[in-house]
Amino acid sequence: MGEECKEACGGRRAPAEGLAADPEDAAKLYEDVPPMPLMALNHISRLCKSVDASVRFYVKALGFVLIHRPPALNFSGAWLFNYGVGIHLVQRDDARRAPDVSPGRLDPMDNHISFQCEDMGVMEKRLREMRIKYMKRTINEEEGSPIDQLFFKDPDGFMIEICNCENLELVPAGALGRLRLPRDRHIPPLRMDGGGDDDDDEE
Question: What tens digit of pLDDT does each residue of 131-179 get?
Fold first, then answer.
């Protein structure tokens, strides 16, 4: 069910424009920006038509783990966690409407979240097993650092990318020395015993 794609945004690298084209202009962006105490991406939140359907998707397709939510959250939803990042799902109702998304055509230039992957073949096989429609493409081949990408959508039409983007070197635009890479400390405290009386005990 994969769709091979090496079209408009998958071929040659587009020329830089605006601030990205001039390192000196880019450097000026940071002149009045103090060091920030941010550590890492904690979670993303999604409004969804069916929390149960979305939980199944993120668990079965991407291997996320269901997490107990704080009791103070008295609305319908679910928390998932893995790979150092959380996904918080909120049941959509008349008062909470998700922004319009396109449930049909896969366009790599649409809004999406991306997960780095160490074995693209395993992920593609899983998508096929689950009969999830996806787009497959490879970019940056001419530069000698090919990046493989898989694009697909969750039950609400939000797009997800899987890639081996570690092949691409990141070059800061005028911000050398300002990058903070995550450490183990950014991961929230995690109870390995499951933390719930309803969990099955491991033998």
Answer: 999 999 998 887 778 889 999 999 999 999 999 988 777 777 766 667 7
Q: Which two tokens stand for residue 49?
A: 């038509």
Catalytic residue, candidates 17, 31, 124, 161: 161
Task: Count Cα atoms within 13 angstroms, Cβ side, for 161.
Answer: 18
Catalytic, 161? Answer: yes
Residue in this structure with the two tokens 């230039």, named with its chain if needed:
109
What per-residue string of b and e applies to 67-97 under the rule 16 or more CB within 10 Å gives b? beeeeeeeeebbbbbeeebbbbbbbbeeeee
Cα-based distances in Å from 27 to 15, 48, 168, 173: 19, 40, 22, 7
pLDDT, tens digit (0-9, with 9 covering 90-100), for 42-81:
899 999 999 999 999 999 999 999 999 988 888 899 999 9
